[in-house]
Records
---
Amino acid sequence: MTTVIYPGTFDPITNGHVDIIQRSAVLFSKVIVAVAKSPSKQPLFNLEQRVELARLSVAHLENVEVIGFEDLLANVVKEKQIHAIIRGVRTTMDFEYELQLAHLNRLLTNGVESLFLPPAEKWSYVSSTIVRDIFLHQGDVSQLVPTVVLQALERLNK
């Protein structure tokens, strides 16, 4: 059984993230979506809310598990006996940043590789940062996020 991990802050999870998760679920036996606390960021949703939104967004995928984590990713990779780290890469800037992390994670995990998946074309411009920015400026994000996320964002506005 090949188990991979897809880590991120997922604040909020977007349709682009769900696309990467769905495609990974076809390729691998088990996908763990690991929602990071990321104390250096000011999230819209707390860790528990982000884990729940991710869980609801991928509930239709039987071989996907969602966890929250506050530890170093490398420690989670070792603990869960992960075979590879999945990362979505939209741009060359993403690639350069992710390549540095891949080298570091390979060192810290004794050789676990990072696999880069480009997004589907229709999601290539979508990021959580863009969704938050549009939302905070009262824009329509309904096409960019799962329905459960849209509902949670609407509750924030009330």
---
Amino acid sequence: MEEETKFSSSSSQEKPQELALSLPNNIEKKEKKKPLMTIEGYPIEGLSIAGLETCIIFPSLDLAFDIGRCPQRAVSQNFVFISHAHMDHIGGLPMYVATRGLNRMKPPTIIVPTCIRATVEQLFEVHRQLDGSELRHVLVGLDIGEEIAIRRDLKVKAFRTHHRIRSQGYVVYQVKEKLKQEYRGLSSNEIKSLKSSGVKITDTTSHPEIAFTGDTMSDFILDEGNSDVLKAKILVMECTFVEERVTVEHAREYGHTHLYEEIQEAMSKLEAPLAGRVYTLTEGF
């Protein structure tokens, strides 16, 4: 007699918790948030993909530079600084403002080059007509060399960059008030008395902490008015082209920086003892 072959099938009476055991762990557990990159004490996050989107976020300063597609983590920043009007740097602006409105957050402050301020306001008006949103915000035009205070101890200054269209970068300064030398050693009551009588008892000092270029040719480095950019603790600068199949000339034609330029600039500043002993392998060997 042949042995009977038995087939088992799932019962419709299986308990839900038994089914749940086969689900991947990442569905049941929340993904742990990755720690942010921290440089010189400043957490940094964001992304920059050539031609698609750039958004660099400094959460401890409550600001973002450029907003090509409005990543979710940019929404919580109260300030956005726009370097220029190319879509991969400004395209996410309406969504940024709309999302903050949807979440009942306070209207953000947006800083743009003065020459595009009116056009950006028109952009918001078009979106208001399309979906009926208020899109409440504060729009500030900033010219090269002008400053805006974003916190009692922070100010931001626009500096000149060199792209295919009008563009500018931004330097964030830490601002400190120090008691003047002649008033040091006075009692607190004496200092309060001087202050209440209108005497300026402090000197204001500022130090460049962070600089952001946006899209630019490397020429900004040579601009005498940009000395603070190179003194900043952190310089976030573009480097769209890194491969030898794209020439420096091509990069400059489109208003961008090539990695080779940065290497050549660094080489030119080597001290004499090293100048003849350091070689760049930009073309292989």
---
Amino acid sequence: MPFRTRPDQPRDLVALIESEVRERIEDAVDHVSLEVLVESRRARGLPPPAADSARDRSEYEAGVRAFLERLHADLVPALDPVERRKVEAAAERAGPEPVARLVLAQVALARMVPDYWQRFDAVRLAFTDERLGGVVGRRSPPAESGGERRGRLGRLFAR
């Protein structure tokens, strides 16, 4: 096989690509949700979320779902009817669990919308500003998504 995979990864190229896109979306959504949660707590003088706290976990999961719903609401209306049906079909593969359905819908969108990550970043900025709007002490603007990171040589030579 011309590409290397981990033992738990799919073996065919289409499934491998879908798996990688899904991982990237899940990581990006986690980052957004954690950023909003941590910054809002910092602004209110509360401690950062704890991994073993059921309440913190619930708050985090609610943030994940809210962001995924916002992404869906902002990106799907721009699609034509055929593309919408493809997104709906992808979401249906996840079964009844709402967050899994929203994630698979985002995977389908990422694979069919050429500027998906730019749109993702625009929604991320709007969502973060809405959730943290007016928060005193917000440290810095959110980092760009991984697609804008410079490579090792670019960092080394400050390009």
